Amino acid sequence: MLGSTCQSNDQCRRTPVDGTKICQDNQCQCATGYIPIDSYRCIRDLEYSVSTQDKTDPPGYGSLCTMNSDCQHATVQLECVRGSCVCLEGYVPLGKYLCYNIHGQSKLKRIRR
User: Fold this and answer.
1) Domain boundaries of the chain, sorted by first residue
2) How far apart are CA 35 and CA 46, in angstroms?
3) How many CB atoms are located within 10 Å of the residue 15 CB?
C-alpha cells in the first residue's frame, strides 16, 4: 500500500513486474513519472510523460488512452483512468497485456463502459 513502511521495492509491489511503485526513504510511493489514483495503484503522469508511445504496438497496461475501448485490444481487464490504461480494481498487471485477478475467478468484475 502506498505510504507503507518498506525496506525494498518488492514490499511495495503486488507483483514482481509492477514498476509503478518503489520504496524510497523507507516508504512505498509511486515511481518517477507515475501518480497515485488510490492507496494501491499508480498510473503514468501525463504531464511527466513524453509522448513517445509506439503507435504500431497494440495498447496495453500503461498505454495512453481516452476511453476504455482504447485499452481493450489485448485484454478486457484494462480500463482507461486519467488517460492511462490500468488494470481493473482487483487485478494486477503481469506484463503489458495481462491483468491477473488477485481474488480468484469467483469474483470477476464486469467492465464499466
Assistant:
1) 9-107
2) 9
3) 13
Give the integer Cα–Cα distance in Å for 27 and 93. 22
Q: Enter the pTM of the model.
A: 0.49
Nearest CA to 2 among 36, 37, 21, 28?
28
Q: What are phi and psi of 68, to 5 degrees?
A: -55, -40
Quote the pLDDT of residue 44. Answer: 77
Q: Which of 24-28, 31-35, 53-57 has the highest mean pLDDT?
A: 24-28
Place of cell 509522448: 51
Nine-digit cell at 44? 503514468
pLDDT of residue 50: 47
Which grid coordinates belong to 71? 485499452
Q: Give the mean model confidence (pLDDT) for residues 47-70.
A: 72
Q: CA 95, CA 36: separation in Å to the nearest integer?
A: 19
Report pLDDT for 72.
Answer: 82
Q: Are 86 and 41 in contact (CB under 8 A)?
A: yes
Q: What letter represents residue 67's amino acid?
A: M
